[in-house]
């Protein structure tokens, strides 16, 4: 096997025996086969118009191959068969043709992994960016929202991964992933806010009340809504986990009185946090770790998330097995007070672009009056690597007159810290899930407008943490927007070849994180 798509890849170069994430060599091979089939399907759309089924199949297939989503070989085989069927629908009889032209054949991913390192690097950026974007398109689709340009680009991008072969051809497509991902995140923002209202600030307790409860994790708000509906008046409380935390800020979700609080921290702590949990956990997206025997019977998956022998909730979204498990386990006998990693007993969320822009004049005034000296977007994924406490330290050391905007699951490193307020606004503001990077961009653009300058001229620094492929598409969006001097950690992607990394350094000033002290000094120009 060969896989180097995430930050924890073996030896910072690539997993070749089995995945550090727990993925087996067989699963990796099937994921390659699925990706090759998706490229074949995309190729078939070159001369035949894609259908709704084509888009749906491509989005699901790409989402399936994101890190920590599917460990279930049978489910991946079904996805490969579905992809072949979708191709057959576009080009009937092609698979059994006596004189095959080879134009719609599945792509052999070994070609990519063994390619010249710069081509492999650019194609990896495109492919992994598309995978991340597919997750966002999927969530939007669940709420009934889609965009033709986004859908078509999945075909275009996959086609290039299979068939373009010069750096000149590939580089614009790399940036185009960023451009289209911005549209995709905007689509999901629209889907979430039109469905559930504009997020407003919320204080979320970390205490779990006694009695039966369900923990729901991942990014899909529709799944949460359906679960809240199905658990109404059943004496079961619901707690968010990981990337589901921002759900507490949406008016139409927080109206459910049994949506009580947040349990646990980021994904990499799940094996510890779920070990003795007297409740089931529902995974709506990444990041699923192979469940330990101690709690495997309490793990439930839905959408494309899958693990062999765990109960999967299908498209009918009947959560009865989860509900029955919650009642059977019964929850804690007494209220349990949990804390975040810094000892805080509550966290805040809901500072999306709607909230921040509603007080934009106050923010601009505070900057002009010198009350706010700098903004830091400290955002991205969390993970297991020890170097990630950099982000906690960085936030702790930021000047007292600076604001920290954050989003995605990396915030659990510091979101229980109380760093005080500036002009009635908390110094740490959680803008939401990783896809809410869209909101951070809106805020940055609005600030630049208010000050009559470019985003790069604002007192705003990007300090990002990455782990999986959604971070890749967001990074490409920031590059597409011309954002410079991003600090990236905890390690740089293995799929950036030295030449491509050089290109990013020279053109965008991307730099790896060093120490909080050094980076703060450099970013504040001291
Ligand atoms: Fe390795 Fe990450 Fe790929 Fe898993 S997803 S096999 S940890 S590179
Ligand atoms: Fe986290 Fe998996 Fe990336 Fe959506 S949940 S940010 S790592």
Outline of this structure?
It contains 18 helices and 18 strands.
**So, CATH architecture of the largest domain?**
3-Layer(aba) Sandwich
Fraction in beta strands: 5-15%
SS-derived structural category: alpha/beta
Which compounds are bound in this model?
iron/sulfur cluster, FE4-S3 cluster
Largest sheet: 6 strands, parallel
CATH top level of the largest domain? Alpha Beta
Whole-number tally of structural domains: 3
> Helicity level, as a percent range?
40-55%
Mean pLDDT: 96
Rg (C-alpha, Å) = 22 Å
Work out the number of β strands: 18
Task: Describe, in plain words, how this protein is organized in 3D.
By secondary structure, this protein is α/β, with parallel strands linked by helices. The protein has 3 domains: 10-177, Up-down Bundle (Substrate Binding Domain Of Dnak, Chain:A, Domain 2), CATH 1.20.1270; 202-337, Rossmann fold; 352-523, Rossmann fold. 43% of the residues lie in helices and 13% in strands. The chain contains 18 helices and 18 strands. The strands form 5 sheets. It has a 6-stranded parallel sheet with strand order 5-4-3-6-7-8. The chain has a 6-stranded parallel sheet with strand order 15-12-11-16-17-18, with no helix packed on it. A two-stranded antiparallel sheet has the order 1-10. Helix 14 (389-397) links the parallel strand 11 and strand 12 (402-406). The mean pLDDT is 96. Iron/sulfur cluster binds at residues 3-6, 8-9, 15, 19-21, 23, 28, 67. FE4-S3 cluster binds at residues 242-243, 267, 286-287, 381, 408-409, 433-434, 467-468, 470-471.
């Amino acid at each position: 096997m060969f896989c180097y798509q995430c930050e924890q890849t073996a030896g910072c170069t690539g997993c070749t025996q089995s995945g550090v994430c727990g993925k087996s060599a067989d699963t990796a091979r099937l994921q390659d086969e699925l990706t090759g089939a998706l490229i074949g399907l995309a190729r078939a759309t070159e001369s035949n118009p894609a259908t709704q089924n084509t888009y749906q199949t491509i989005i699901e297939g790409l989402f399936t191959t994101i890190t920590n989503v599917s460990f279930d070989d049978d489910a991946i085989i079904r996805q490969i068969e579905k992809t072949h069927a979708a191709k057959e629908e576009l080009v009937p009889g092609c698979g059994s043709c006596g004189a095959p032209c080879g134009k719609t054949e599945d792509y052999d991913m070994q070609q990519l992994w063994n390619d010249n390192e710069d081509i492999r690097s650019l194609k990896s950026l495109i492919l992994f960016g598309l995978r991340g974007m597919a997750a966002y398109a999927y969530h939007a689709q669940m709420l009934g929202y889609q965009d033709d340009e986004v859908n078509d680009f999945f075909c275009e991008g996959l086609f290039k991964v299979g068939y373009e072969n010069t750096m000149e051809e590939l580089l614009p497509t790399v940036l185009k992933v960023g451009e289209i991902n911005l549209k995709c995140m905007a689509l999901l923002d629209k889907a979430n806010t039109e469905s559930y209202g504009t997020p407003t600030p919320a204080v979320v307790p970390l205490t779990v009340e006694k009695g039966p409860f369900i923990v729901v994790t991942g990014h899909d708000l529709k799944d949460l809504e359906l679960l809240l509906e199905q658990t109404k008046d059943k004496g079961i409380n619901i707690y968010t986990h990981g990337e589901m935390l921002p759900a507490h800020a949406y008016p139409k979700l927080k109206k459910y009185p049994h949506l009580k609080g947040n349990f646990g921290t980021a994904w990499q702590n799940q094996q510890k946090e779920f070990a003795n949990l007297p409740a089931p956990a529902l995974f709506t997206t990444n990041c699923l770790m192979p469940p330990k025997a101690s709690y495997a019977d309490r793990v439930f998956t839905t959408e494309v998330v899958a693990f062999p022998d765990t109960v999967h909730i299908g498209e009918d979204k009947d959560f009865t097995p989860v509900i029955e498990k919650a009642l059977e386990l019964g929850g804690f006998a007494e209220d349990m007070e949990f804390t975040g990693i810094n000892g805080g007993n509550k966290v805040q969320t809901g500072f999306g672009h709607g909230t921040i822009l509603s007080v934009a004049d106050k923010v601009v005034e505070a900057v002009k009056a010198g009350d706010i000296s700098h903004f830091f977007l400290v955002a991205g994924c969390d993970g297991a690597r020890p170097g990630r406490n950099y982000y906690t330290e960085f936030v702790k050391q930021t000047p007292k007159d600076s604001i920290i905007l954050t989003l995605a699951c990396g915030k659990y490193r510091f979101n229980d810290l109380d760093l005080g307020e500036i002009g009635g606004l908390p110094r740490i503001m959680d803008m939401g899930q990783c896809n809410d990077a869209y909101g951070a961009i809106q805020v940055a653009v609005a600030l630049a407008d208010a000050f009559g300058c470019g985003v790069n001229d604002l007192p705003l620094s990007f300090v990002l943490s990455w782990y999986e492929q959604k971070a890749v598409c967001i990074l490409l969006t920031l590059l597409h927007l011309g954002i410079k001097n991003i600090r990236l950690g905890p390690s740089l992607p293995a799929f950036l070849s030295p030449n491509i990394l050089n290109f990013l350094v020279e053109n965008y000033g991307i730099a790896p994180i060093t120490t909080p002290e050094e980076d703060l000094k450099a970013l504040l120009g001291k």
